[in-house]
Design a protein that fits this description.
The complex is a heterotrimer of chains A (367), B (197) and C (154). Chain A has 367 residues and is an alpha/beta fold. Helix content of chain A is 26%, strand content 28%. Chain A folds into 3 domains: 91 residues, Ubiquitin-like (UB roll); 101 residues, Beta Barrel (Elongation Factor Tu (Ef-tu), domain 3); 125 residues, Nucleotide-binding domain of ferredoxin-NADP reductase (FNR) module (Rossmann fold), CATH 3.40.50.80. Chain C is 40% helix and 21% strand. Classes of the chains: A alpha/beta (367), B mainly alpha (197), C alpha+beta (154).
Chain lengths: 367, 197, 154
């Protein structure tokens, strides 16, 4: 009697349980890849299979640059897949160029470590560390550029070449639910190893800069990884022509501050800093002082559109014209540039025209 | 229905009794995923996969659990649970075996759980009292038939998007339903070859 | 395991993926409608406003080209518009997965006669041009059809 009432629910429950067990077993045996060997360049790592290359490497303390945090949108985390990875996935295909495809370059955030496999990454990525740091101070340089000083907590010291950059990790705030990573050049003295200094310009509606400008306070803890990049001083006897705009002053400052007086006398650096009007200029006094200490160094701030009440008597006009005016013959020069992509292109063009070998113009492509 | 061979059922379910074009099942994804041939192909393959497997599984569940317990009226609930669970398992198997297939099917597999053609095929094979091999043939055939229909429509839509001017009021689902009707008429031409039910 | 999308199964599932990416990228901010619906609604709005989108897009394209050559300096166009350009380092991949990498740049434009202003991101221009996507309500770079109409005095 009761059985006829109980049977239907019991049957369905039994069926559901049986299927749940099948799913759990499948998960247990299909999703567990066990321990596999991952070869990175020539080093062998024993890792737990099943995760993406990006997060597996992070476990092994190897930090591949990534701006989007593994959502396959930034295309920074490219690595060369030597063996053990299948065909290109539809998720990564839109971000790979023809050249990438022929060289087997893949996105580390999409390909998974499932069996013994091998990848190649640039050697310098091995020296990248993840740092916990505390915000020491935040000061305004202009209305939209701030100077950040971070004190490193662990590891306590960073070793980098002046001109290199770090990746800063933002935390979720307001409507933004993700952590993102953005690259900023270090602008401080490389010999002060216990701290990292950045100059950051507020990007309109930028996720990370808005976080840094509106939500970050002195005393907060942050996570940074680095150092990255191949923008640093090359050894030669050529004169240095440095050109920067806005927060692009950061790596140039790091490079110039780290030079010895003899080096400065030998390389005779000239530093062009382009801005729109006086309110976009900053640290002018610091550079004038630097100029006074090193007679071979010259600082040329140039305004492209000075306001009438700026009382501007210095160089005026587009930065490219000012460079051409001050360095008419640049055959024996080397270029160090940092700024917006449009400015970089224009400066490379004018320097080449003035006689600089394109091979000797250095700038950060920010991956 | 015992006298019809499995191969005949397989063939008939693709052409003459196409589950989409004669029963109009699985219409929602058919209408929305037929804009591009590539995505239509992805969904089609996934349907073939899932329909074949769930047909067999539902056959086994029905004749080995529900019939002995005299609970045939629970078939709807039972079939839905079986389909949902199997889709999950199939998804895991694909993830394990082929990253590429997984990434391209990824979003389609959960959608198939709620594709009425999959449930419809399971119910038809019970109503028509197919045996095991006939059920297998019917499941696979219906899946392939569904894929054929969506691929045909996607091909037509891809061509139309470049060349045809459609009356604004008929754009989208309107013209697609008309096209589907014409394709269905075209498929009647096959009916002289074989016929089931 | 992917979970079942919590929306009706009536749109192209590829759009779900794109919608997911657009939401993460804050291109749909306060938008309650699905991406499919938003695209249809905006297309209908354009039709009802009787706007020549090809003209609007060609104007925006021209603004972008002229402004980017100004390197941040305001550029005067035919004495009727003033455009300027703001560019930061970095690239943004188009969330629609079409291999387009937009510079992180914003174009500001002012209609000298009416004083109306307009700003758009380079990625926003691309998404409008290629995908008919104006971005969602409340999204920082939404190109509101009505504002475009009044800006160009159509």
């Amino acid at each position: 009697m009761y059985l006829s009432y109980l049977l239907p629910p019991l049957a369905i429950a039994g069926l559901a349980t049986a299927l749940a067990i099948i799913i759990l077993l499948a998960e247990r045996y299909l999703m567990d890849y066990g321990e596999v060997e991952l070869k990175v360049n020539d080093k062998l790592y024993k890792v737990k299979g099943g995760s993406t290359v990006l997060s597996t490497l992070k476990q092994e303390k190897i930090f591949i640059p990534s701006a989007c945090g593994g959502r396959a949108t930034c295309a920074y985390c490219k690595v060369t897949a030597v063996k053990g990875f299948g065909e290109v996935l539809p998720t990564e295909a839109p971000l790979l160029t023809k050249e990438d495809l022929t060289k087997n370059v893949r996105l580390a955030c999409q390909i998974k470590v499932k069996n013994n496999c091998e990848i190649r990454i640039p050697d310098e990525l091995f020296s990248i560390r993840e740092f916990r740091a505390r915000v020491d101070s935040i000061t305004d340089l202009t209305y939209d550029i701030k100077h950040f000083i971070f004190r490193l907590l662990s590891p306590p010291e960073i070793e980098y070449k002046p001109g290199q950059y770090i990746q800063f990790q933002s935390q979720p705030y307001g409507d933004v639910s993700d952590s993102v990573y953005r690259a900023y050049s270090m602008c401080g003295l490389a010999s002060e190893r216990n701290q990292v200094e950045l100059m950051v310009r507020l990007v309109p509606e930028g996720i990370c800069t808005t976080y840094m400008f509106k939500h970050l306070k002195a005393g907060n803890e942050v996570i940074i990884t680095g150092p990255y990049g191949d923008f640093y001083l090359r050894d030669s006897n050529r004169r240095m022509v440095c050109i920067a705009g806005g927060s692009g002053m950061a790596p140039i400052r790091a490079i110039l501050l780290a030079m010895t007086p003899e080096e400065i006398a030998r390389r005779r650096p000239i530093f062009f800093f382009g801005a729109r009007s006086r309110k976009d200029l900053f640290l002018v006094d610091e550079w004038r002082e630097f100029e006074a200490r090193h007679p071979a160094f010259k600082f040329v701030p140039a305004l492209s559109g000075p306001e009438p009440d700026d009382d501007w008597t210095g160089a005026t006009g587009r930065i490219t014209d000012v460079v051409a005016q001050f360095v008419p013959d640049a055959k024996d020069c080397e270029g160090y540039l940092c700024g917006s992509p449009g400015m970089l292109n224009a400066c490379v063009e004018i320097l080449c025209k003035l006689g600089v070998d394109e091979e000797q113009i250095y700038y950060d492509k920010f991956a | 229905m015992q006298e019809i061979g499995a191969f005949v059922i397989f063939f008939a379910s693709i052409f003459t009794s196409n589950i989409l074009l004669t029963n109009f099942l699985g219409m929602c994804s058919y209408l929305s995923v037929s804009r591009e041939i590539k995505t239509a192909w992805g969904l089609g393959i996934a349907v073939v996969f899932v329909m074949t497997i769930t047909s067999i599984a539902n056959y086994v569940v029905y004749y080995n659990i529900l019939v002995p317990l005299k609970l045939e009226y629970l078939e709807y609930i039972a079939f839905i649970i079986v389909i949902a669970a199997l889709v999950q398992v199939v998804e895991m198997i694909i993830e394990r075996t082929s990253d590429r297939l997984y990434a391209s099917l990824g979003i389609f597999l959960p959608l198939i759980t709620v594709n009425c053609a999959v449930l419809g095929a399971a119910l038809f094979l019970i109503i028509r009292k197919y045996d095991f091999y006939q059920s297998l043939a019917y499941g696979a055939g219906s899946g392939i038939g569904w894929m054929l229909a969506i691929m045909a429509l996607a091909g037509i839509r891809a061509k139309m998007s470049r060349r045809s001017k459609v009356i604004p009021a008929l754009e989208g689902p309107g013209i697609v339903l008309i096209i589907t009707g014409i394709i269905a008429l075209g498929f009647i031409g096959f009916s002289g070859i074989v016929q089931i039910n | 395991m992917t979970s079942l999308p919590d929306r009706p199964v009536k749109a192209d599932p590829k759009l779900f993926e794109i919608e997911e990416k657009l939401r993460q990228g804050n291109y749909l901010k306060d938008e309650n409608r699905s991406l499919n619906r938003l695209l249809e609604d905006d297309a209908a709005l354009i039709a009802s406003l009787n706007m020549d989108m090809a003209f609007v897009i060609s104007q925006l394209d021209m603004f972008y080209k002229e402004a980017s050559e100004g390197l941040g300096e305001p550029v005067l166009l035919e004495n009727s518009y003033e455009v300027s350009f703001r560019e930061d380092r970095g690239k943004i991949a188009c969330p629609w997965g079409d291999k387009f990498f937009a510079p992180k740049a914003v174009v500001y434009a002012r209609n000298i006669k009416t004083g109306a202003t307009l700003r758009f991101s380079v990625l926003g221009l691309h998404m409008l041009k290629r995908h008919g996507f104006f971005q969602g309500q409340g999204s920082p770079f939404r190109l509101e059809p009505k504002e475009l109409k009044s800006f160009f005095e159509l």
